Amino acid sequence: MYMKKTALVVATVLVLTIATIYADRVTRVKSQTSGNVAMKADVPLDAATNGERAPDLTLKDLNGAEVSLSGLKGRVVLVNFWATWCEACLLEVPSLIDLQRKYADKGFIVLGIALDDEGRKVVAPFVANERFDVDGKKEPMNYRILIGNDEAADKFGGLIGYPTSILISKDSKQIKRITGIITADEITKAIESQL
After folding, report:
1. What is the pLDDT of residues 70-111, one digit of tens each?
2. Which residue pairs, CB below 8 angstroms and at least 24 apart, start in 63-71?
3. Which end of the chain is more exposed for a tag (fewer CB within 10 A), N or C?
């Protein structure tokens, strides 16, 4: 009797393990990896979302001022969902700093939407104190940081992982979605096509 129960438990564990591996493989976003950090997964917007109007979203920045996406109509906006604890998010910050610096005077803006559970009390000191290596210099985040929540992410169809970036055109349409680390090279053409 003991052997039958043991065999049944082993068989059940084996079946569950195989099912989990299969489910992981079929639902995984294809990406390049470096160690255990997702490097990028360019996830095209589906037919229902591609060109769809960006959601009306209003969040507070680190100073408590409200920022509305609809108030940025006429500018190209890169919405970047991130968190202070997300290693991959921090790896892409230098590219975001560089993009903001390079295209700000042409009507481009990066909006970093922080999704830390602790909100402003964690994000504000992080942004104030952290510096990132950009072209050999230590630079602060030079783009606007907003305090986000699950509802903000849900308005964009939810997130598969961090970081996730959505490029929005001057007429407030969603153009490109990237899950994972973006690089300046891959997003530059999309930004320039909208300016």
Report:
1. 999 999 999 999 999 999 999 999 999 999 999 999 999 999
2. 67/111, 67/144, 67/146, 69/111, 69/168, 69/172, 70/172
3. N
Beta-sheet pairing, 132-134 with 137-139: antiparallel
Q: Which amino acid is at 28?
A: R
Q: Which residues contact 32 (CB under 8 A, 6 or more apart)?
A: 38, 39, 40
Give dist(CA 103, CA 108) in Å, integer: 5
Tokens of 94: 């230098």
Sign of the dihedral defined by the CA atoms of residues 127, 130, 133, 139, in that order? positive
Q: Is the pTM here over 0.70, yes or no?
A: yes
Of the CA atoms within 13 Å of residue 45, those in its CB half-sphere come to: 19
Give, in order, the Cα–Cα distances in Å from 36 to each of 18, 33, 91: 22, 7, 13
Residues 8-46: pLDDT tens digits?
666 665 555 554 554 444 333 333 333 333 334 444 443
Around Cβ 43, how many Cβ atoms within 10 Å? 17
Alpha helices in the chain (DSSP H): 2-27, 87-103, 120-129, 150-155, 184-194
How far, in whole angstroms, is CA 4 from its chain's centroid? 49
Q: What is the pLDDT of residue 12?
A: 67
